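Apologies for my clumsy wording, but could you write out the amino acids of a protein and the tokens describing how it folds?
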Amino acid sequence: MWETEEFGAAHAGRSGVLLADGSEPGPVFFDAGSSASFHQSSDWWIYTGELGAPVAAELRGACSCGWRGDARYPLDWAAVDRQAPYLYDTSGPEDDWARHITEVGAHAVPVPEELAVLLDQVERQLDKLSDDAPLAALRAVGRLERIVTEAGRTAAYGAEADAESGSPIGPGLGLSEGEARRRLLRYTLPR
């Protein structure tokens, strides 16, 4: 799985598979024996035709948000090391997913440049302080947590008010509406 720090699991990427007929198969389920639970996987290297899995013919970029890349990359099973499938070149699908993430970020509301620079400085200072004076770093982190709690609550209520007037929240954050709502709840629910 590929993830960015900003979007995390909301836009987790992977090499998706296509069968010879162009369809995208569902996950493969593995019976673990006498248990009531089954392991499932959508990892591209599972689709070998073995253990009841269909045979993947092509790879393409895929994202947990539902996006699928248009480009298709033929899958050469003879070149896949079964002991180390991660060595197979999946850079095409990953590059396509990276372009998708760039587009998601471009459509999100930008963080003002001045604030982005300050946040980068704070991060660098905290990294340095964590090595040199860990207790001072913890005090600073505590202060940041208080700032984030208050500013996050105010911003979340403001975003909810905007949403009531018809402005969707998700696209501005680069997330689905459901993910955006969960983020708002994280700031509006008391801890």
